[in-house]
Amino acid sequence: MPAITSRFVDCHVFRLKPGGGEEWLVLRRAPHVQLAGTWQMVSGHLEPGEKAYECAVRELEEETGLRPLHFYQASYVNRFYLAASDEIVLSPVFAAQVGPDAQVRLSGEHTDFAWVTFEEAVQRYPWPGQRKAIATIREQFVLRPPHSASCLDGMVDCEDD
Questions:
Q1: Residue ranges of domains in the chain, CATH in brackets
Q2: Which of 15, 17, 51, 126 ranks highest by number of CB atoms within 10 Å?
Q3: In 3D, which of 91, 77, 97, 73 has the Cα closest to residue 147?
Q4: What is the pTM assigned to this prediction?
Q5: 3-state percent helix, strand, coil for the chain, nearest multiple of 5
Q6: Stretch (H or E) spanning 113
C-alpha cells in the first residue's frame, strides 16, 4: 500500500497590474534538477520542524528573491502519486502577492522566468494539480476580496504596501 506523505509545498506568485488585471510568475526548471525544462510555480521540500507556510515563504525567497506584500493559504491541496517511492503526496498550496514592480532573482534551480497571464500560466503548467491550484487561487484571492481567515500576513514577514 502506498504511503501518504506531505513533504512538499507549492506557492503561486501573482502581482496586480496598475491598470487592472494580474500577472503570474512561472519558473523554468534547470537542466540538472528533476523535471528539467518544465514550467512551475515556487515549490520545495519541508525542512525538519518547519511548518508548511514557513517552507513556502523560505522557498519564495530562495528561488526568486521575492518577499510578499500579502501571503495566503489556499483552499486547495495539490495531490499526486510518485511511483518511484510508491507514495501519495499531499502538497499544501499557498499564494504570494508581490508588488507590481517586483524584481525576480533566480536561484540555480531555474534557468528562466516569465510574468504571464493566467491563461498562459495554465497552458505552461504540465500537471492538472498545478492548473487546479492556480485557478483556485485566482478565484479565492484575485477575483474576489480574500477572506481574512486565509491571510497569513501576521504570521510571515511581508513587505509594506
A1: 3-149 (3.90.79.10)
A2: 15
A3: 73
A4: 0.95
A5: 25, 35, 40
A6: strand 110-116
